[in-house]
Amino acid sequence: MIRKVSLLFAGALIGASAMSLVYGAPGPAGSDSNADTYKQLAIFGDVFERVRAQYVTKPNEKSLIENAINGMLASLDPHSSYMDAEQAKDMRVQTKGEFGGLGIEVTMENNYVKVITPIDDTPAAKAGVLAGDFITAIDGKDVNGMTLQDAVDKMRGPVHTPIKLTIVRKGADKPLQITVVRDIIKVKAVKYRVDNDVGYIKITSFTERTSDELHDAIAQIKKKLPDDKLKGYVLDLRLNPGGLLDQAVDVCDTFLDHGEIVSTRGRDPKDVTRFDAHPGDMTDGKPIIVLINGGSASASEITAGALQDQRRATILGTQSFGKGSVQTIIPLPENNGALRLTTALYYTPSGRSIQGKGITPDIKVEEPLPAALQGKEIVRGESDLHGHIKGVDETSKGSGSPAYVPPDPKDDVQLKYAEDLLNGVKTNPAFPPSHDKAVLNQ
User: Fold this and answer.
1) Is residue 114 within 8 Å of 360, Cβ to Cβ?
2) Annotated catalytic residue: which of 298, 300, 325, 401?
3) Is 298 assigned a catalytic role?
4) Is residue 434 annotated as a catalytic residue, yes or no?
5) N or C: which end of the chain has fewer CB within 10 A?
6) Which residues in the chain show pLDDT less than 50?
7) Catalytic residue among 323, 325, 353, 383
8) Is residue 309 among the annotated active site residues?
9) pTM for the whole thing?
């Protein structure tokens, strides 16, 4: 499968292991910090000194320590990790939703970076970069042999600095040299449109900008469709890997006017935090269908689970990823990066743990895979990750489902089903005649 990365500047999006994030500070050491623990630490120090003094070649001491830290954290669960100063900075940039870059969406094809599309009114578009262009060199360095992330890192840089792209374009008799001056690119976390009297809203990630963009999307949809014609909303959370916990809460609060949204529970039974909705439903009680699949994780699952438990929306699609843990970002002193540590699990309003299980849709609708992907799509969920925390509601079925969405909305079976359901069209003979309406109006 071609790997696609939404860049808007040439930078990676938040991955499935960096879901619901909460910022905090380190707490006190636990009761197990006793003499035996310090003896083990002394052994570690002795091993480190022997490696440093006696290894056949001089080792990189910083790398040794970082690998030791990562080894310790990796033994806990797949989402706890150490980030050096640069990685911590990148994480803050990603969650902020804006950064310095070019304004292009790219993929890697035939060992070169292919431009899927330049984003309107960004440096790349203004400089003349076109969809379908192949970037073969960046500042004179051949792209062949780089990973997509390598190319991303080279195209990333400070605002107002130039970068020279060597581009091969269909129809051009020789490579083009295009200089692009980096600028601040604001990543759109929310996209929207009006289809068949239905407001369609897609949330791609939960960044600091998500709730504000969601409010704007709903306001714009209301302007385009009068209340008597607006049948409802489709909230598309497919392929959404998650992001910030507080943004998930704000998104849910947009559609709810009362009740619990989510709770987080730490190691101490008393360590429980609950998040509740405030009065005011911006959608005025209109029907909502939420689309999910195996690429919907963490903050996406918080949103789907809350709207499902509060009977505010119908969940349609396939089983979600199943990441129900909360990571606290703990900055380390003296600019030594940050620790990402799993500190709690989250629960839906009815008390369900999604960890290792995921959200089960009210209406299961599978998206047919194209012939090129049949037999190749690997279904992976949280339950498949080595060393994952076993969820209290996890079963042998595990979590996850195929994470595929057709690029053309005309081919999108799940979306068509949702729009037909909102428009009162019966589309699934597997359900009795009253089922769809009953679920939609639950």
Assistant:
1) no
2) 298
3) yes
4) no
5) N
6) 1-27, 427-439, 441-442
7) 323
8) yes
9) 0.78
